[in-house]
Design brief:
The chain has helices spanning 2-13, 21-51, 56-64, 68-80, 90-98, 103-115, 118-128, 130-153, 162-166, 179-214, 217-224, 231-239, 246-258, 263-275, 278-284, 290-314. The chain is an all-alpha fold and 315 residues long. The protein has one domain. The protein is globular and about 65 Å long.
């Protein structure tokens, strides 16, 4: 139905040719924009209701009383139900650190929350099928858990800014909402989040449409294609300067796959965009000292590159 609507608008109302670059790009843009916003509205509303059972105070208390390795797994899993971008996860990261959650555990959450969440799962499932969606989610969780454990083993607490340790945690009560209050919260949260992320979605779909319609296939094959042994690190290097959440980057990923980029390279690019970004680095610079910040980015980027090569070899 959505495909027919996009075809009607582009090829009938606007009289563009199906084989033209502008026609293909605009058709891609309209179809993916409508599809993504419908998915996001439903997903965010449902997740907002679920989130009412996992307020930050309860989350911090849960992680504070777990052994390190168990905490890494729990923190990564909690990232699935907390749909934050890489920057908006930082406040919870600070809260976890100053509440006594082990540093490695907090990093597992910081990696998992933007990279592995229900938005990515359902949108990947809708665009590429359940196998690709589960591959992405499982490898994303693995990266978050392993990277968090490695950072925890390095004992780098002294490279967290001193003021973070001096902050005090409020011991506020956890308010229990009834179902009507949860629905009201979910409606407000959905509208508020859509207002914040819609520009990223539109820009992401727009870039994906441009790639789909105008970027020659041989360009991508040369720089990040299957025959380039350095395609994965190139894709990760290109992804880090970008800033988007899963909703914004998936249309770009869709277009890159259609241009022939290998699946492992595509997954590495998506992980780099969502888990690592320059805005995140700027914010974290106020929380982490340079050595820990560089270590964090280096470990996560290395893990993502390994994942990319691994899946290029087996897919």
């Amino acid at each position: 139905m959505l495909k027919q609507l996009a075809d009607y608008i582009v090829f009938t109302l606007l009289s563009l040719q199906p084989a033209s670059r502008s026609g293909e790009a605009l058709n891609f843009f309209i179809y993916d924009t409508v599809k993504i916003f419908l998915l996001l509205t439903i997903i965010i509303f449902v997740v907002a209701i679920l989130r009412t059972s996992f307020p930050p105070e309860r989350t911090k208390r849960l992680l504070s009383h777990k052994r390190e390795y168990v905490g890494n797994v729990l923190a990564a899993l909690l990232g699935i139900v907390t749909p934050f971008c890489s920057c908006s996860a930082v406040p919870l990261f600070i809260g976890f650190v100053e509440s006594g959650v082990p540093l490695g555990v907090t990093f597992s959450f910081l990696i998992s929350s933007p990279m592995v969440n229900e938005v990515a799962l359902i949108m990947l499932w809708g665009l590429f099928g359940w196998k690709i969606a589960l591959i992405y989610i499982s490898t994303g969780l693995l990266v978050a858990i392993v990277a968090g454990i490695v950072i925890g083993k390095l004992k780098m607490e002294r490279y967290v800014q001193d003021y973070v340790w001096e902050m005090q945690v409020g011991s506020g009560e956890i308010k229990v909402l009834n179902f009507r209050e949860k629905l009201g919260y979910a409606r407000e949260y959905t509208l508020d989040l859509l207002k914040k992320i819609w520009p990223y979605v539109v820009v992401g779909v727009g870039l994906g449409a441009f790639i789909h319609g105008y970027v020659p296939a041989d360009f991508l094959a040369k720089w990040a294609g299957r025959d380039n042994p350095f395609a994965v690190p190139v894709a990760v290097a290109l992804g880090v300067p970008l800033y988007s959440n899963a909703a914004g980057v998936i249309p770009i990923v869709h277009a890159l796959m259609e241009k022939g980029m290998a699946m492992g390279t595509v997954l590495a690019f998506m992980m780099a965009v969502t888990a690592l970004s320059l805005p995140e680095a700027i914010i974290l610079k106020n929380v982490l000292k340079p050595r820990l910040l560089v270590t964090f980015f280096g470990i996560v980027a290395t893990a993502i590159v390994i994942v990319g090569y691994l899946f290029n070899a087996i897919l």
